[in-house]
Amino acid sequence: MSDLKPKLDAAGVNALMRRAFPESGQDGLPQVMSVAPGRVRVMRPYGPGMLRPGEVISGPVLMALADTAAYALVLAHVGDQLMAVTSSLTVNFLRGCKPADLYAEAEMLRLGRRNAVCEVRLWTEGPERLAAQATVTYALPQP
Amino acid sequence: MSDLKPKLDAAGVNALMRRAFPESGQDGLPQVMSVAPGRVRVMRPYGPGMLRPGEVISGPVLMALADTAAYALVLAHVGDQLMAVTSSLTVNFLRGCKPADLYAEAEMLRLGRRNAVCEVRLWTEGPERLAAQATVTYALPQP
Amino acid sequence: MSDLKPKLDAAGVNALMRRAFPESGQDGLPQVMSVAPGRVRVMRPYGPGMLRPGEVISGPVLMALADTAAYALVLAHVGDQLMAVTSSLTVNFLRGCKPADLYAEAEMLRLGRRNAVCEVRLWTEGPERLAAQATVTYALPQP
Amino acid sequence: MSDLKPKLDAAGVNALMRRAFPESGQDGLPQVMSVAPGRVRVMRPYGPGMLRPGEVISGPVLMALADTAAYALVLAHVGDQLMAVTSSLTVNFLRGCKPADLYAEAEMLRLGRRNAVCEVRLWTEGPERLAAQATVTYALPQP
């Protein structure tokens, strides 16, 4: 969907997200690394409390980052719309996610007036060894 | 699926889950309230850090509790299988989730040898005003 | 969601659906069997062409009936809105679906102004031995 | 996932699929157009009976092709395993699907011993204007 034009760069999205989640600073708010037409990449630094039994990164941590990556993607393309809300999320866990900095790349599949549908892929080992894949739908605030 | 017979009661599942997530105590680990054939109810007490912009309970908190409720349901019916892992989760957010103690009821749709498929409904206002609904698939460890 | 009041009964929904899909008559259009507050039951008579290898009813037949059941549920509660369109569908196949008349029961989880979210359960052997379960989201036409 | 090596080419997969669905010939069985490491492209020729109200290709037609594309992708990479069965499918409908030959491209996200998880994108207007996107999980027969 290369006809999409971002309205914000990575720094702009990071600033918006810090405003939306002021309390999240202490435990490593995910950072937007890059913004491109129809895409963003975010990263959450590895930290304690992210693991589940089996010494892999837990499902809720992966789901939260999938949601955040989609939110960042929406903000990058529609601008200051903090009230966009997730309406659905489907995640497939593909393999145990080894402990390390966690990356997510989100791609816009469809940006309409009412909704945005995003695909998100997550990994720690590398983008060719995905830990999880998600599709996330956001409802956009109506004027 | 009333032909299912739980192997553990609520106290037994709570004990297993405390063993699986020893660090989670400090911020209010969800409690299993009741276990019945094919069903469990869990509750996470309301606490700080559960909100998102708009003063509603955040999506990741709802997703995490949906996953926990399905995990508790699996443990209740297969016993001490801490290594069961989520293979997929789909959640639909139905309305803003007002701040209060968060309940989840999970129902077993299918318990096979390899997988368990669970439906989960979540609310704070009451079970007739759902905040979210999820389906969760767990992969069971193979002997 | 017992506060929902259907606007149409089973005969009314069947009439609307025949109007929406005039060509479907020849191969056994599903019939709405009953309408209740927040619920409908539909049935597709068993017929040739519904099977896949292994002599079970095929996934696409189950998905199509899940979609139809959700559509019937929406029509029953909002009336003559033929242009409601499916926006997403998630289905879990739970066990092989033995060849017989195929039933689906759809329940409204949330009926908003913009969307309806429905849960659908499908079976041939009986409602306590589900063949599949789906969640279906419909976008409602805006005035 | 370029480390995947297909075991069958397009002609090989087409031959297998004709064997699996011998009755489907008459109404335009989808054709596998190409097979590459981790990917296949399939096409279903436009024909009558594919439309829904609004003169767009119906959801069940899109879902059936998503399922077929994932099945073709699995067959291409594991060989003659006709008894692979869909275990779940999530589809997002992104825009009305204009009547024309319908294309689907499926990508393998994870091929394990027990399961395969595939992403599928569908279009008639072009791959940069998707009509739908799906994730499909197949359970593989166990030796």
UniProtKB/TrEMBL annotation, chains A, B, C, D:
CDD domains: PaaI_thioesterase. GO terms for cellular component: cytosol. The keyword Cell division does not apply. It comes from the Bacteria. Pfam families: 4HBT. Residues 56-129 form the Thioesterase domain. Keywords: Hydrolase. The keyword Manganese does not apply. Coiled coil: none annotated. This is PaaI family thioesterase. The lineage of its organism: Bacteria, Pseudomonadati, Pseudomonadota, Alphaproteobacteria, Caulobacterales.
